[in-house]
What we know:
The chain has helices at 30-37, 43-48, 118-126, 150-153, 167-180, 197-203, 206-214, 231-240, 251-254, 275-290, 304-316, 330-343, 356-370, 393-411, 445-449, 510-516; strands at 52-58, 63-74, 77-84, 90-92, 112-115, 132-134, 159-161, 185-187, 217-218, 264-268, 294-298, 344-346, 374-378, 414-418, 452-457, 467-474, 483-489, 496-497. It is α/β, with parallel strands linked by helices. The protein folds into two domains: 30-222, Dna Topoisomerase Vi A Subunit, Chain: A, domain 2, CATH 3.40.1360; 251-516, P-loop containing nucleotide triphosphate hydrolases (Rossmann fold, 3-Layer(aba) Sandwich), CATH 3.40.50. Strand 13, helix 14 (393-411) and strand 14 (414-418) form a beta-alpha-beta unit.
Amino acid sequence: MDREPYRPNTKRKQYTKPKYEPRSSDEPSEKLLAWFAARGIPAEVVKRNGIEARTVWMSATGRKERVICFPYFRKREVVNVKYRTAEKGFQFEKGAELLLYGEDDIQPGQPLIFVEGELDKLAHETAGYRNCVSVPNGYRTNLDILASAESLIGEVPKIILAGDGDEPGRMLEAELIRRLGPERCWRVTWPEGCKDANDVLVKYSAEELRASIENASPVPINGAFEGHDLTIDVMRLYETGRPNGVDPGWDNLAKLYRPRPGEWSVVTGIPGSGKSAFVKALAVNLALKHNWQFVVFPAEELPPEENASTLIELWAGEPFSPGPTPRMDRDTVLRGLDWVHDHFVFLNPDEGGRGLDAILETAKSFVLRRGINGLIIDPWNELEQLQSAGQSETQYIGESLIKIRQFSRIHKVHTWVVAHPVKLYKSDDGNYPVPTLYDIAGSAHWFNKADFGITIWRNKTDDSQPVDIHIQKVRFRWCGQIGLAQLYYDKVTGRYREAPPPQPGVLIDSDVTESIH
């Protein structure tokens, strides 16, 4: 299949500055002020936020229309403008940066309210809370925009989530909690018959809106719950079913193992069995099938560019290097690198930054910036082992695995840890026994604390045999079961397959390759 020549964009994304100048000398029209007054928002709030009425070309209708202009400011400069028609049509400035509405109102050290619309932000200001921001596109907002305000948000001690009270609003709330961290998040419950802050202001009063904010409840981390506290969540489980993880990309393995956010897996196997190759292939499957993003600490496969090259190989289904099978062309490499950029972050910290706490703290930053879904630590023994004085290895591993579990659950990230077993000895047939989780060096905590336990075993005397994927532990039965799946390893591309790979010289998965390009 012929493709257009690839032209990579090596520059940082450039945004267009709006040709929009606030008319600071003009008073808003009476009609505009009356529109806001009907929604409980006074003239002084409209003026302070620079809101105007103008005639603008709206691409959705293909004509000029009279619209309300909501300028988005950063350091008092207009970065974008949202235009709203009477029929609730919306349009931003083409090519301009998306950001939080009200970013300039974030006060480090002070609580911050998050809402889903400009009117809700203005409603809170009317009630006396200027420290409020709105996501620009409601529940559809790509929350990667939080990265542009990371330094400001990072200084906020308490975040009050006051979004819409419908199902999409709850989905947005859950993702904000995941990215911002539940330890500082509180959520609002609106009065009966109200969906959002502006509803409360119009149907009740500013005092009732203030009461809703003051009565916000903390998001539980590891708290205690009475049954009625869980009514909404339990009924949602009843209607939709327990979350049972995601398809790992191989049908025979999906029956046994379905990783899900908030849990962690330990992967073991003797040297050369393919532990790292399996985890890497699994990550590529999850990125392709579910658009997952990963932070990877690949200590045994640095520098990062070499790790990236193997991911490109898995993505393309073609070899990166010359050999008996035709290698991928330069365009494919560059397209693959774009894909890797969208789904993977590699960690290569200096000495002193390779301990578990540092890795988890960096991964936490990328939960906020990119909404990562997975963390891979490969292998465990390459982390700096920062044991306290007098602390045994068993105690250290136990405490460390608790940290991994807490990180995974709090931030709804699935973590994989590749850990080597103790030295095992060959049997008479030239193969090693299948390690168990209790064989992992250091501690039985590996079995006790993991949500999933996986052992990779390869026949060392016959490369044509499939690789055994032993699922040795599954904490929750609705996410899998103990058992054995077999996959064939393709040396040409690093992929794992449910059938033997083609012989060298045959192009692999050309249909898949072209579809993802």
